[in-house]
Amino acid sequence: MPLEIVRNDITKMQVDAIVNAANESLLGGGGVDGAIHHAAGPGLFAECRTLGGCKTGQAKITGGYDLPSKYVIHTVGPIYKDGEHDEKALLELCYRESLIIAREYGCQTVAFPLISSGVYRYPKDQALRVAIDVISQFLLENDMTVYIVIFDRTAYQISEKLFSDIAEYIDDKYVDEHTDHSRERIRMNAFHPIVSELKRKKTDSAPVELCECQAMPSADDLNSRLDRLDESFSQMLLRKIDEKGMTDSQCYKKANIDRKLFSKIRSDVNYKPSKPTALAFAISLELSLEETEDLLRKAGFALSHSNKFDIIIEYFISKGNYNIFEINEALFAFDQSLLGA
Ligand code: AR6
Fold this sequence. Notes:
- The chain is an alpha/beta fold and about 350 residues long.
- It has 16 helices and 6 strands.
- It has helices at about 30-40, 40-50, 85-105, 125-140, 160-175, 180-190, 195-205, 210-215, 220-225, 235-245, 250-255, 260-265, 275-285, 290-300, 310-320, 325-335; strands at about 5, 15-20, 60-65, 70-75, 110, 145-150.
- The chain has a 6-stranded mixed beta sheet with strand order 1-6-5-2-4-3, with helices on both faces.
- A hairpin with a 7-residue loop joins strand 3 and strand 4.
- Ligand AR6 binds near residues 32, 152 and 155.
- Ligand AR6 binds near residues 32 and 35.
């Protein structure tokens, strides 16, 4: 998956380069800087002494010494004052400059800590948003796998409002699932989605705008549905990409899926993706809930109200929010696996 959020100690990451949240002297400090120097050993400090420091927003590279990573890219984040001192622009620059250096050195995999979000006091949710925005922008043009490494639970939070909205949505759905009425609805859905949709509209006591005859598929519609019965996941995906007027690469990049996996799916008509992969494509294609269910079924899956992962996805689709990185942030906050490969 091109961009992944993981919970780990960055010094343990088996990647080509890890990024250090350093200070302008590049001579070590506390936080992640201290941990990196400690794990890399004295060779790193000796090389850092030759670099002549580094300005805020810039980045410099060294070897990884005793670390599992080949390189360390040192960048200096802004000290957060009030958000009115170019903090955001400087933080964006840190990510961009580090990625450009990583590309120059042929790195395929890079891991970032949340720069400036510790001693330099950049608000963590905003620091994460900056990281995701700059990295995902860069990945639209470059093939690389980038990890954002979150060290401890408290170091990470999505906005409280989003968290509580999703928590409430999960609660509602769990409750809903445990009523007989809802179970019946689910059974009906499995057998006759149109009838159950009508029932739902009626029982919701909202004005029913469709009459049953309008909701029944026409003969043409039915024929084309039957024609598609045998369509595989891969065929349906490619058809949807065409229908949405997207290119393949726009689709897999927006799905946070790497090119190799997409080629596999494209060339194997019977390819069976994992559920997160199938859902990532549904998000990328901005499918409705019903279309998402269709696509999932092709891969042998369904959305269920008995797990949080599915409910969170449903929450975002129902809000029309198809930003995969925001969805992944939320999944991460709720300890769920992430969308993508
Ligand atoms: N792995 C991943 N993330 C970590 C680790 C780790 N081992 N340790 C801490 N973090 P900070 P800054 C997280 O303070 O705010 C240093 O003294 C931590 O939870 O390390 O950019 C430098 O020399 C936080 O979310 O960096 C500078 O003087 C994030 O890394 C100054 O601190 C960044 O926290 C830089 O401050």
